[in-house]
Structure to design on (165 residues):
């Protein structure tokens, strides 16, 4: 079964020739220029990218299969995906957010702390939001606190300091 990575949300159409305007949910907006095929909506409708442009931090795509505004109106508010086999390669110790969200989080003694429910981007570094039955807490996503990441088994091991939990 194919796996997909969400790369943006279609927010509106663009022009009368079937262009779509996308709010990107990737930190590398330039990666859209490398796209060949994309998949749209819950049904993952396959489409071939014809043209790409950037307009005010939004991505505008033209798709070969759709040449009229009426053809793409139904895609508005849908997510757009790439096949996981076509997603970009990340450097070591970098991860796709959706691969981490839902991971079980443990301390250094392997005591379960909760589940990673969100990742907040800040200027300095990302921050992991972890929730358990009692509360939510945050851990900076830096090597000093992130001991191990096991994406395949959705497990994180973190080092806590006083006041963090």
């Amino acid at each position: 079964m194919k796996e997909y990575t969400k790369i943006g949300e279609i927010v509106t159409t663009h022009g009368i020739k079937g262009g779509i305007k996308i709010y990107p949910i990737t930190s590398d907006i330039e990666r859209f220029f490398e796209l060949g095929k994309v998949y749209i909506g819950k049904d993952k409708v396959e489409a071939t990218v014809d043209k790409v442009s950037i307009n005010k931090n939004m991505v505008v795509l033209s798709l070969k299969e759709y040449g009229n505004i009426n053809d793409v109106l139904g895609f508005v508010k849908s997510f757009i995906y790439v096949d996981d086999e076509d997603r970009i390669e990340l450097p070591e110790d970098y991860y796709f957010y959706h691969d981490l969200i839902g991971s079980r989080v443990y301390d250094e003694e392997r005591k379960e702390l909760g589940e990673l429910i969100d990742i907040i981007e800040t200027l300095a570094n990302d921050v992991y939001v972890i929730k358990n039955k009692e509360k939510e807490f945050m851990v900076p996503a830096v090597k000093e606190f992130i001991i191990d990441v096991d994406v395949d088994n959705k497990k994180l091991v973190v080092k806590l300091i006083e006041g963090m939990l």
